[in-house]
Amino acid sequence: MPKRLLNSTLVAVLSAAAFASWCAAPVFAQNAPCALHGTVVNADGEVKDEWVSFVDGRITAITETKPVGPKIFIEVDGFVYPGLIDTHNHVHYNVIPQWSNGQYPNRYAWQQDPEYLEKVENQFVRESDSGETADAVLYGEARSVIGGATLIQSNYAKPQAEQFIRNLDVPNYRAESYTGPIEKIDPAVADKLRDNLNGTTLRLFFHIAEGKKSDTATQVEFGLLKDKGFARSGVVLIHGIALTPANFAEMKQNKMHLVWSPRSNLRLYGETTDVQAALDAGLKVAIAPDWTVTGSSNMLDELRFARNYLNRNRKPQEKFPSQKLFEMATSNAAEVAGVSDKLGSIEVKKCADFLITKKLVHYDKKTDAFLKLDAYDSLVQCTPGDVELVVVAGRPVYGDSELMSKYAKESSAIKVANSNKRIAIHDEKTDDHFVDFNAVEARIKKALPCVAPLYEP
Ligand SMILES: [Zn+2]
Known about the structure:
Blueprint: H1 8-12, H2 16-21, E1 34-41, E2 47-55, E3 58-63, E4 72-82, E5 84-86, H3 107-110, H4 114-129, H5 133-145, E6 149-152, E7 166-167, E8 175-178, H6 187-198, E9 203-208, H7 216-219, H8 221-227, E10 235-239, H9 245-253, E11 257-260, H10 262-269, H11 275-280, E12 285-287, H12 299-310, H13 322-329, H14 331-337, E13 354-357, E14 361-364, E15 369-372, H15 375-379, E16 387-392, E17 395-400, H16 401-407, E18 412-416, E19 419-423, E20 425-426, E21 434-435, H17 437-447
Parallel strand pairs: 1-4, 5-6, 6-7, 8-9, 9-10, 10-11, 11-12
Antiparallel strand pairs: 1-2, 2-3, 4-13, 13-16, 14-15, 16-17, 17-19, 18-19, 20-21
């Protein structure tokens, strides 16, 4: 939604050495050898009890027997998934509570609605004026972390170091984004973005066709994008509500990707992308909340929303596969973000980013018993309260109080969905590398008249 552009010069100064080492993440990687035991959802789809060993933020082995050598052993009861990858958000807006004021023909319409300007945009301006942007970003990231995200694409208000979760806008990841209307893109900016795609940029994100399918301004955007030379490999389209099966086929041919944000789309326009047609065309589709203001509070909520939306008119035997939704938040999302060599699955040499959740059950009327859900059905019904632990670069950043107290050096107590949790922010600028989340929250609440709760289902 916002109109900022990532500072391209930062991308240009990226050194090969920095790129080679980003797996460990610069600030918060867990350096000690560790091993995590739980029910691991493997890259090949196999789900079994295993030990995942890692050091310096990178997975070194996956074994059925307890490894010898690690200094720290983390044992959990739940499913161990790769960390979720949020391929589209606007994290610096995510201190602002949910907002809606009816439906609009396209994104340019609500951006001019005085009600939007007062309740959302002016709050953001206040946040910036108060100098609280950095805290607001941390707060927004915390809202993502509790829902299992370990990497977020956000077109941040300003480049910010990774203190908490991975930030796709940091130059190491070689991603850029352009959020303004494609029709009005400055030719010099377009030239620069195209040049970067020929060089260092791996992924370039555009908001395209965000509006009703019947809206002319929304319909023409894909054609405008092509006219400007961006129908090409490395380009990611966010939303694409008005895209047709023919457009999806063209995207596939040009090795382009799609990010789907159903909840935000349905709230703002009453309709969303034909995601089944995109999948049928063979596109890699990722799912992401867009932002918390009109979308979901976090990735788990967006997965739950998508599951309910996709299955609303389907018979139980025809339900949309939960494993596909899992892939949209992990392996597909990693491909969309250009990080599939390091993230998106639990494999040796990849980064030690994990989401660990409870194993959910469901009540079966026929047998009058609670039945265990499989790993995928369980994931798409979880809330942040069901999260046992989130690990980024081998370091626990959020989870159950007991686990966090045991495995995180320092953390702040919080309540999420009536559960006692703890959250750990790391900052190398402070002496003890610890940032008290409750102090961050208090500063924002002092600076802004209205702050969204950490979890807003
Ligand atoms: Zn957006």
